[in-house]
Design brief:
With 248 residues, the protein is mainly alpha-helical. It is 62% helix and 0% strand. The protein folds into two domains: 99 residues, no CATH class; 120 residues. The longest helix is centred in the last third of the chain and has 31 residues.
């Protein structure tokens, strides 16, 4: 039995190792770019959250630069001075120190030195929490509008209007923090990959929300069609944003 347990454990470790080496070309380029880095021992954790394919902030930044092409040292160096995980240290400082550039709990420890001051506003610029307001308000407003029409209750229509207006107003903050976060997290303006798609969807959704209120104020017949399209756009934009933040 001990021998069987040993064989089983070895097989599991081999499978984990195989998963980590799912993109050996990436690790080879990383090793060649930073040959003296203690971070080489971390392998998967430099770019992934636990086991692949779920990526950490540094891994997502690398993926957005590569865009399905071939990773090069020049691409990696574009991220040297970016603080992907927002812990106060640049990616290059972390790589040179052997800590994880995509994990805010892993960072260099400076002996006999004052702790590194954290930025007053995190690098994501509070976009993830702020964006929940326009999403929830607009979808709830859509629900109230449709139920009010179905049940012929105008008071629900009034409540729907308030929700839709507050959703549009809060979406201004969501768009502003989203653009700021894209720049501060190293995705750039304009960004690339999924982040670019998310940005285009977000701006289009913002425009649709405004158009919805315009149609509603004028009581145009096409209002409900625009409202439903806007609600779908809000849902799609929020879903893609979740994939970017939490990975897949």
């Amino acid at each position: 039995m001990p021998r069987l347990a040993h064989v089983f454990t070895s097989a599991c470790l081999a499978l984990v190792g195989a998963a980590c080496l799912a993109t050996p070309a990436y690790f080879k380029v990383f090793s060649a770019t930073y040959p003296n880095s203690p971070a080489l021992k971390n392998r998967c954790l430099n770019c992934h959250l636990g086991r692949p394919p779920k990526r950490n902030p540094y891994g997502k930044a690398v993926d957005n630069i590569v865009l399905g092409g071939t990773l090069t040292s020049a691409m990696l160096h574009q991220l040297d001075n970016v603080d992907s995980d927002g812990d106060g240290y640049t990616n290059l400082e972390e790589i040179n120190a052997g800590t994880l550039p995509g994990d805010p709990t892993s960072h260099p420890v400076a002996h006999n030195a004052a702790p590194v001051a954290q930025p007053l506003i995190p690098t994501h610029s509070e976009h993830p929490p702020i964006v929940h307001f326009p999403i929830a308000l607009f979808l709830f407003g859509t629900f109230l509008e449709l139920v009010g029409i179905w049940k012929k209750k105008p008071e629900l229509g009034v409540a729907a209007a308030w929700n839709l207006w507050f959703a549009f107003i809060s979406s201004i903050a969501a768009v502003g923090t989203g653009l700021t976060a894209s720049y501060r997290l190293g995705y750039g303006l304009p960004p690339t990959g999924q982040v670019l798609t998310h940005m285009i969807l977000g701006l289009s959704t913002f425009a649709l929300m405004g158009l919805t209120l315009w149609f509603r104020a004028r009581k145009w017949k096409a209002y409900l069609v625009v409202l439903i399209f806007a609600a779908i756009a809000v849902s799609a934009t929020g879903y893609l944003g979740g994939l970017i933040v939490y990975g897949s």
